[in-house]
Amino acid sequence: MLMCRDLAGIASDYIDGELGFGKSLSIKVHLMMCKDCRSFIGNLRMSARLMQGHSSARVDGDVIDRIQDRVTAALEERKPPNNPGQ
Amino acid sequence: MSTPNALDEQNLIEALKRGDQSAFEQAVSEHTAGMMSVARFYVDPSSAEEVVQDCWVTVIEAIQRFEGRSSLKTWLHRIVANRCKNRLRTSNREINTDFSEALEPELDNRFKPSGRWATPPRLRFDESADALMENGALSDCLDKHLGQLPETQRSALILYEAHQHKSEDVCNILDVSASNLRVMLHRARQKIFLMVETFQETGEC
Ligand SMILES: [Zn+2]
């Protein structure tokens, strides 16, 4: 018998569709009977979705600027010397 | 982060192959954040910047050999991962991905010995994540908590959720097993869950 605590342990696998048919079914049955776990799964799913929209991987503009400068310098260096146009 | 004049991926790749400077500017601003997440999984933050800088310089040549079998993003992330792994080979650093428990202690405490909830989730979060995120204070709080996650969990979460990489790509880039990835994701999500719950109840981060 799947208890609430067991369900919480594999809730992410359930959300991501990583569980086999049997386990997934026993979760579905549990969820039909347990309001608390329905809340938990709903909230955990929302937590995952929050991350999807969150541009959390932001970095300092300074970091980007330093990389832009280095790439620009490397591109310049690489240009053939006979490039009189421009 | 697309601007009106941004090239689509195919055109961007063609322009990068020509060594077009504005194409590199676009690519650097679009992809550096994700590359930093990969690097920070492996190395400390200051080395991470150095690694990512070096990667961009190698990309100038390496892009000629890019055949489009993966997305540009996945390809760039793999370049960063490989560079980090080479660097680590000499330093012998162990990456801590060993979580034997699936549940965060703070969540585990909320169950009775019988396995039923003692302290169940108290609220349903809003139906829409977008609506939640429009709350700037929550967004700041999320940033703060992400900053406190172990690097391993944070990188796994960012690559999987924010960058929408497939599991196998994340495992490949971070060099972790599928089961390790599952645990890292689950532990990170539980922390976000606990954070949002506290925030909704108290308005505090
Ligand atoms: Zn339950």
TrEMBL record, chain B:
The keyword Transcription regulation applies. Residues 36-93 form the RNA polymerase sigma-70 region domain. This is RNA polymerase sigma factor. Keywords: Sigma factor, Transcription, Transcription regulation. The keyword NADP does not apply. Pfam families: Sigma70_r2 (PF04542), Sigma70_r4_2 (PF08281). Residues 140-192 form the RNA polymerase sigma factor 70 region 4 type domain. Belongs to the sigma-70 factor family. ECF subfamily. It comes from Marinobacter suaedae.
